[in-house]
Amino acid sequence: MVDFSAFQLSRRTALQQMACGVGGLGLATLLADEARAASPGPHHPAKAKSLIFLNMQGGPTQFETFDYKPEMAKYDGMDPPVSNKQAGTVRLNPGSKITAPLFKYLRHPKSEVATTEVFPRMAEVLDELCAIRTMQVDSPAHPQALTQSMTGYARQGMPSFGSWIMYGLGSANKNLPGFVYLAEPYGHGSSFLPADFQGMPVGDKVPNLKSAAGYNGAYQRDMLDALAKVNANFAAQHPAESALNARIEAAELAFRMQTSGPEVIDLSKESKQTLELYAISGGKKPLDKPTSRALSYTTEDFSTKCLIARRLVERGVRVVTIGVGGRRGWDQHGSLRSSIEHNARVTDAGIAALITDLKRTGLLESTIVMWGGEFGRTPYAQGKDGRDHFAKGFTYWLAGGGAKKGVYYGETDETGSNIVKDPVHIHDLHATVLHLMGLDHQKLTYKYAGRDQTLTDVNGQVVKGLIA
Amino acid sequence: MRARFFLVTFASITVTTANAADPAKGVDFFEKKIRPVLVEQCYKCHSADAKKFKGGLALDTRAGLIQGGDTGPAIAPGDAKKSLLIKALKHDGLKMPNETMKLPDAVIADFEAWITAGATDPRDGKSPVKKGIDYVEGRKHWSYQPVRVPPVPTVKNSVWAKTDFDKYVLSKVEAKGLAPAADATPSQLIRRMTFAITGLPPTPEETAAFEADSAKNPDAAVAAAADRLLASPRFGEYWAVHWMDGVRFDQLHQSSDIYRAWLIRAFNSGLPYDQFVKYQLAGDLLPPSGTKEVDEDRLTATHMLTLNLGEMDYIEGCVEVVGQQFLGVSINCAKCHDHKFDAYTQQDYYALAGVFTSTGTAGFVKADFPAYEVAGGKVMGLKDVPKKIGDTKLLIRGEKSTPGAVVPRRFPLVLAGDTPTPLSQLTKGSGRLELANWIADAKNPLTARVMANRIWMWTTGIPLVGTPNDFGVVGEKPINPELLDALSAKFAGNWSVKGLVKDIVTSRTFRQSATPTAGVQAADPQNQLLARMPVRRLDAEQIVDALYFVGGVLDCEPPPLGTKLAGRGAPKKNNDKNFLGAYRAVYGIGTIPAAMFDAADPDLLTIRRDESVTAPQMLFFLNNPTVHKLAAVIAKRAGNVDAAARILLGRGLTAAEKPAAEAFAKKNGLERYCHLLLCSSEFCYVE
To answer: Cβ atoms within 10 A of the Cβ of A266, count?
Structure first.
């Protein structure tokens, strides 16, 4: 159970004492809102209200995406530095040689951050990116690393970072869940945090969203009014049980979600220009046939998720995660060149459009867009045409929400094999994202199994160098 | 590396021999060369100012350096070579200030010179990091005291109490100048009892019979109803779920359904709790009973710990479950470092871990389940494996790469005294049987208290100790310690779960209404006085079972052993049956509606379920086609609004409610009225 602070208790008492002047259902709503707002944050003024996480599952290569490493060409075909192997963080691939980035770089006049020729649209928004080149997670294995990127812990069963944010800040939208995923369900659970903080899918996947014949339309509104009376009556008999008031409000939210859920995924009211920006044309044809180690989405699939994410954020949703339609989309152990080209085509327009669109609507200032996967890929080749998992020194980027613009953070050596300056562990990134959202990762605690649990365990430091 | 080593050694020898007034010996050297580096590079993770002592190491006092952290003393004054701090600075094994950053060689040389010269350090004071455990102090903790029945208090209201338990409650209520709540109505009480004991609602007939009995003799009515409900097979099926929550029960785990069947039998047959403990921990090691069935039951029970096989660290999982589920202590926290709050050292952890590293898992064939085919017809259980038996090594920081000294198997010192006999002297086996006997001993202060608290919580909805798995220092204190001890003493006297449940439901405390008397709410908003009963949300199993039950479609026959329900590789047809909650699949996140209603996640030890209120729950009631179907069935059976309320809410409508209900049903149909009641709070809450 959440341990409400004395302050919140006294606020609740004050509200209850106001009761005489407020009137039955109004009071119920007030109390329900209060119950929902009961959270341990914010701890300081926030720069960002929302977070969109573009989860590039499988572990995208940093070299062909956003890590500018022109010097690497010098080392192409050479043995990787010994110290890299000693670090024990990558699997040994005997005999494998350094592979310089496969594509030409694209630069932006106002940005240190570069990308490659397969991301022409991203090249236009590089001035918004703050790219971290020294990301670290504890494991170079997919399940552990993915779990850690979603929950802070390499073991299963801990709450999603989105649930922590929800626990800290509560929902800012009365008609939609505050933590939404357009991705695989894995990693979105609330674990020991209250169930209302779990991630929820929107769109067709919300269970029970559609009301049945005989129970819908005008009848449903009448029924809900009658239900509210019955429930208010029951709640009035038990004034100490705030859950009973929250339930009245939950029924109203459920009712509104029936409309707001489908509404938020209905793109028919978006302008032609917007749809063009996202490269959404109404066709579902895949651009080309993906390999098994590439994204199975079409550009349209992915762009649509990006546009829905903007619509969700616009409506006050706190956390949105976007997946890539499977767990191995960026897992290029082979077909490096063709798979990256494919993945870039699928994601380039949607992500660039999302940043442009958020900026245009003024939402980028209060929205963190975060791009990254569970780890990156080795500087050296695996087999003929692949890169292996690499957990110490890969790339994530942030855009908006109070992050710096157009800069790199952290340095790896010229071969990308070792971090030489400013390592950023996933704990540090989580701490920084919480900080931008007004939460102190050390104060955001929840008592479970005899200790004060946190998203960052006993680790993590806010990386000031990422904050504008 | 070698070259630098010689250079440094040579330099320091030169310094110490050639210059009697060694500059590295002076405070100045420390202030100019050492302190700034410590402050700048180390304090942020190892100082009181930063409120952090990573690895248990404080670098902001001399004592802290000498005491050292988890890996040992940081410095050996006079001997730079033996100083871990130098090794860490040189990235030899440990890497400091961090994995990727190394200080300049000149700075490291300063540190070497400073240590060689004796490590002069004016920063006096004790190390802020507490090392070692004060057992004398640790043993004073309330939950480690022997259970003693406290004197029964005298109370002013001499007629209210039905049992001595009630007097412990009443005296505290009276001490605040308050009065307990009035009795619940018979219909409220039978609904509360029926849900608490069987997980299901009462039928209208049962409610009517109880109301009639209560009119004649309320005490006799309650006692008879308790006996009837405790004799129902539903009791074991529902209470097994409570137990399963705390032991990582996962029905996808090989042969776990046979263990579940055993649990249900154990609760229903009234297996005494001390036996219940021994069977699960050491059923394979108990002397033969002479009855094949009993021996097989004991083997089956040992399946419990194998449920941890999916954990990253199986041994830790075993220590966690045994510690928290049976004893309410988190010894598992001492795997990597001494317990931060409780008097458990890493040695205590590995002393217990050795019992489980000495144990293997084994499959055996259970004769009376011929239909069981999963896993080659074998039940997974525990077995002592002679070649594995032995003490285990402590792992520094819990890491396999840094093994420490061998720790003899024994019980934790704070509980077992300063010099417990090592288990290797008591047995040639793993020590599981000795552990089981020690836990199941009526004199163990924790075992009875922990289970009595759970039984009270599962029955009433309010735990006496709010952290049922943690009776340690950071756990909550009992809200009524006298009541807890009285219950624990009674329980340890006969180890009867059913007996204690009956004692609780027949108490006046349990029979109170949920509506407090004047002044109680203001004086006791958290309901710590127990001057009223709580309003509880039904748990996930109860909600779905109740829906099926009122709709007359609940399938009370258990699925045949070996039946795969929802989850990996389960045939769809198996999910069409409306099995009881105990048998339904509860797996992972997103399983609707079990997870939606806060069912236990098999990955976690769920000690207390949450009672969340969410919009998706309401969408379920409003729109789920099954709910609509059930509404139609109930409407047909009920025929009128009053009968519908009796089926769904366990009570008839009041005179004030009736007109509105009838008007609604007239306008919209009885089916829709039944749906409205299914959506109502009263349907899924118990007063």
So the answer is: 11
- A/B interface, count of CB pairs below 8 Å: 166
Task: Establish if A462 touches chain B: CB-CB under 8 angstroms.
Answer: no
pLDDT of residue B563: 72
Tokens of B482: 């006298």
Identify all chain B residues contacting A247, using CB atoms and an 8 Å cutoff: 613, 618, 681
Q: Who's near B491: CB < 8 A, 6+ residues apart?
A: B273, B448, B451, B452, B455, B500
Q: Is B440 buried (19+), middle (13-18) or exposed (0-12) by CB count in 10 A? A: buried
The model's pTM: 0.76
**Closest-CA distance of chain A to residue B674, Å:** 11
Which of A1, A191, A257 comes nearest B619 by C-beta?
A257
On whether the CB atoms of residues B651 and B207 are closer than 8 A, the answer is: yes
* B589/A451 Cβ within 8 A: no
Q: What tokens does B487 get?
A: 């219950």
The token pair that represents B328 in the structure block: 């309410």
Q: How far is A420 from chain B (nearest CA, A)?
A: 6
How far apart CA B179 and CA B173 sit, in angstroms, is: 6
Task: Give the separation between CA A138 and CA A146, rounded to whole angstroms.
Answer: 10
What is the spatial distance between Cα A224 and Cα A236, in angstroms, rounded to a whole number? Answer: 18
**A window 175-194, beta carbon within 8 A of B:** 177, 185-186, 188-189, 191-192, 194
Interface-testing mutation among A137, A173, A238, with chain B (most B C-beta atoms within 10 A): A238
| ipTM for the complex shown | 0.81
Burial-class residue A15 by CB neighbours within 10 Å (0-12, 13-18, 19+).
middle
Q: For residue A230, which residues of chain B lie inside 8 Å, CB to CB?
A: 676-677, 680-682
Cβ-Cβ contacts under 8 Å for A308 (sequence gap 6 or more): A182, A202, A203, A264, A265, A267
Per-residue tokens: B256? 């776990």
Which residue, B256, B502, B533, B547, is CA-closest to B378? B256
Detail the DSSP E strand segments found in B37-139.
Answer: 46-47, 52-53
Q: Are B202 and B190 a contacting pair, CB within 8 Å?
A: yes
**Interface touch B616/A207, C-beta < 8 Å:** yes
Instruction: Please tell me the distance from the alpha carbon of residue B302 to that of residue B304, in angstroms, as a whole number.
Output: 5
**CB distance A397 to A370 below 8 Å:** yes
Chain A contact set for B513 (CB, 8 A): none
Tokens of A276: 């063009």
Would you say B286 and B270 are in contact if contact means Cβ atoms under 8 Å apart?
A: no
User: Would you call A191 and B680 a contact, using CB atoms and an 8 Å cutoff?
Assistant: no
pLDDT for A83-108, tens place per residue?
554 444 444 566 788 999 999 999 99
Identify whether the C-beta of residue B128 lies closer than 8 Å to the C-beta of residue B48.
yes
**A113 part of contact set with chain B, CB < 8 Å:** no
Give bridge partners of residue A376 from the DSSP assignment: A390
Amino acid at B632: A
- Please name which of B57, B115, B107 lies closest in space to residue B81, comparing C-alpha atoms: B115
CA distance B89 to chain A (A): 16
Cα atoms in the 13 Å half-sphere on the side-chain side of B213: 19
Alpha carbon of A108: minimum distance to chain B alpha carbons (Å): 30
Which tens digit of pLDDT belongs to each residue from A184-223? 778 888 888 877 788 887 765 667 888 888 898 899 999 9
Q: Divide the 687 residues of chain B into consecutive groups of 10 and give the mean pLDDT of each group.
A: 33 35 80 88 84 82 83 86 88 80 87 90 76 83 95 96 97 97 97 98 98 98 98 97 92 84 96 98 94 89 90 87 95 83 91 95 63 57 92 86 90 93 96 98 97 98 92 90 98 98 98 94 90 95 94 88 63 70 62 72 76 86 93 97 98 96 97 98 96
Q: Which residues in chain B have Cβ-Cβ distances shorter than 8 Å to A461?
A: 44
User: Which one of B54, B99, B618 has the shortest CB-CB distance to A254?
Assistant: B618
